[in-house]
Design goal:
This protein is an alpha/beta fold and 270 residues long. The protein folds into two domains: 154 residues, Rossmann fold (3-Layer(aba) Sandwich); 102 residues, Hypothetical Protein, Haloacid Dehalogenase-like Hydrolase, Chain: A, domain 2, CATH 3.30.1240.10. The protein is built from ten helices and 14 strands. The strands form three sheets. The protein has a six-stranded mixed β-sheet with strand order 8-7-6-9-11-10, sandwiched between helices. Strands 2-1-12-13-14 form a five-stranded parallel β-sheet. The longest helix has 16 residues.
Length: 270
């Protein structure tokens, strides 16, 4: 079959999503790609317990395990299993979080864990963000948090300037303790060393039997994934530095960027 041995690994926000028309075009192309032997999945900062609310029909759309939580683990929706999970050491990290909270009290702290989330008390930005996904948002003092199973820490604020100051502070005090990535201008994510989308692309390639990987993304948290792809692609609506590093540039996300990639794979045999 024409797409056998190939897998498309796509970011969600700004790549798969964008407009209803773009999503419809993407879904039709993905079904065509799968029907002709291809594998399709996502690599996202999203997590297993809420990805279905972001991508309706997620469980039927993908036919390979997904890279979730920005590379903290690989998740197989068919079995409910996590593979190659790389967690932060909560006990070792908490003292640093307390220092960070004292220095930047207006920056919100959210921790994604194996069974849900932990939200530090007293930050409206984090509360509003979580209310998009949960009816009840429980906020906890840092000293009362469970220290086990931390997949990632999300530092969030109203302005990019403050988060850049946080990023600089981490670079100066803990330069090798975390993998750091911006998921958007107002969210900086911290993961355990080695927990990256790119590392999980390599893992997935081995797990699935040396498939050819086509990765598509648009933002800084996709950079490592794209650098480790056999073929890297970006929507023309993506960040310029991501566009510049990719092998292929396709249509904007709102016009169906994944469909555009599938067309190039078929017509240009990339």
């Amino acid at each position: 079959m024409k797409f056998s041995g190939k897998i498309i690994i796509s970011d969600i926000d700004g790549t798969y999503t964008g407009s209803e028309a773009g999503i419809k075009r993407n879904n039709e192309a993905i079904e065509y790609f799968k029907a002709n032997g291809g594998l399709f999945t996502f690599a996202s900062g999203r997590v297993a317990y809420n990805i279905g609310t972001i991508v309706p029909g997620y469980d039927k759309l993908v036919n390979a395990p997904s890279i979730l939580c920005n590379g903290s683990y690989v998740y197989d929706i068919k079995t409910g299993q996590r593979h190659n999970e790389i967690c932060l050491d909560g006990e070792a990290t908490m003292p640093f979080l307390k220092v960070l909270h004292e220095k930047f009290p207006s920056v919100g702290i959210r921790i994604n864990c194996q069974d849900g989330y932990l939200a530090a008390a007293g930050n409206d930005f984090i509360y509003r963000e979580l209310k998009n996904y949960f009816e009840e948002v429980v906020q906890t003092e840092l000293e009362d948090m469970n220290l086990l199973g931390w997949n990632k820490i999300v530092l969030a604020g109203e302005g990019a300037e403050e988060l850049e100051a946080v990023n600089q502070f981490i670079n100066e005090t803990m330069p090798s303790k975390f993998e750091k990535t911006y998921s958007c201008r107002t969210m900086l994510e911290l993961l355990a060393p080695g927990a990256t989308k790119g590392a999980q692309v390599k893992y997935l390639k081995r797990f699935l039997g040396d498939v050819r990987t086509y990765c598509i993304g648009d933002y800084e948290n996709d950079e490592n994934m794209l650098a480790n792809a056999d073929v890297s692609a970006c929507p023309s609506s993506g960040l310029q530095k991501i566009i510049d590093m990719c092998d292929v540039v396709v249509c904007p996300c709102g016009e169906g960027a994944i469909a555009g990639l599938i067309e190039k794979i078929e017509k240009e045999n990339i």
